Amino acid sequence: MGWSLFFTPLRITAKSLFFLNISPYQPLVHIFLNLNETFEPMALLQKKQSSQGLTAVGIHSQGITLVRMGIDENGPSRNVELWAHHPLTRGKSLLNLLGQLSLDYGLDRNHCVTVLDDQDYKLVLTDFPDIPAEELQSALRWQIKKQVDFPVHGAAIDYFEFPQPSGAAEVKRLYAVVAKNEAITQRVELFADAGMRLRVIDIPEIAQHNLVKLLPGADKPLAMLSFHRHSILISLHYGGFIYLVRRIYIALDSQAGEDALSGHYQQIILELQRSTEYLETHYVDCPAVEQIVLAPSQMPTQGLMEHLQGIIDIPIMPLDLSQILSWEGKLPTNELLARCFATIGAALRDEGGKA
Q: 121, 183 in Cβ contact below 8 A?
């Protein structure tokens, strides 16, 4: 399933947007760009492709992070096979650094996945158009054009479904993913110029879901908060499904005053309460959220935890990645784990054991 998507500046066609099948329901979707035929240099076509899994490549203003999971008969394992963070040094561009890493780690023989920054796309909750599948992309583009703050004419559009609320009267809805054309173009060109095989461009929501599925309590309703450069992502999960996603466009800042932080905490608490209440009122057969998990953060979150514990009567725990993943060597610092949280989740994308 999928549809053709055109990126005018590159004069290419991303042949299809494929569905990421997460049993027991199919349509969790990500932006999937099958770019090999267009962008692979001829020299690379003659190299033997590695049997290793996808290599997740995190592109940050401070540097580049590489993460690759081991592969077993069921797909990605919990063993972190490759972890490397390389800071961007003075006088070196991201392209130069990525090209060097491609040579150092043999990444020209691996398919890669990367994750969009939180300002490069929008996630829009909208009604599911009641039209034939071949007309869905055009309908979504028209339907959400007034809900994003950038032109949708050349944007990449994808979507994912979620379990529908109880009651036949409820209108079926979906989350539309709308990515800026220039963001997709720049990311594709960066990997192509570095001689690397970019297979997937993903979003943090799906990467976060990949990590949630590994948690001990993932078979029960839980909420996860992750902290991004410009925003905080709240997601509700139950039984292998994403039920709800909210993004708050604030960033916890260690330099912020006490009043500012208190205001941020109150906004986070309010959105959490709205989210958990929505689950309880719209999904009458779904149990209440049983835990709130805080992802690693570059900023101290102790104050947030104390505020949450004082108001919300739900157990709150920080996510300890060492408890759900096996690391070869020393565990990275909490600051690095926070910066690369989505990259780690993207490395867990199940390709059926094949890169």
A: yes
What is the distance in angstroms between the CA of the first residue and the CA of the last residue of the chain? Answer: 20
Cβ atoms of residues 143 and 129 within 8 Å: yes
Structure tokens at 316: 């709150």
Phi-psi region of 173 (alpha: psi -120 to 50; beta: other; left: phi over 0): beta
Rg (CA), the chain: 20
For domain 216-318, give the CATH number: 3.30.420.40
CATH number for the 1-214+321-355 domain, one of 1.10.540.10, 3.90.1150.10, 3.30.420.380, 3.60.40.10? 3.30.420.380
Residue 11 is predicted with a pLDDT of 27
Q: Is the pLDDT of residue 332 over 80?
A: yes
Beta partners for 220? Answer: none
Write phi, then psi, for 76 (nearest 5 degrees): -60, 135
Strands 197-202 and 111-115 turn out to be parallel
According to DSSP, residue 334 is labeled H
Q: How far is CA 293 from CA 193, 233, 253, in A?
A: 39, 12, 20
Q: Which residue ranges make up each domain of the chain? A: 1-214+321-355, 216-318
Model confidence at 59, in pLDDT bands (50, 70, 90)? Answer: very high
Candidate from 7-16, 45-54, 185-194 with smallest mean pLDDT? 7-16
Phi and psi angles of residue 125, each rounded to the nearest 5 degrees, phi first? -80, 120
Residue-wise pLDDT for 18-35, tens only, equals: 323 222 223 333 344 433
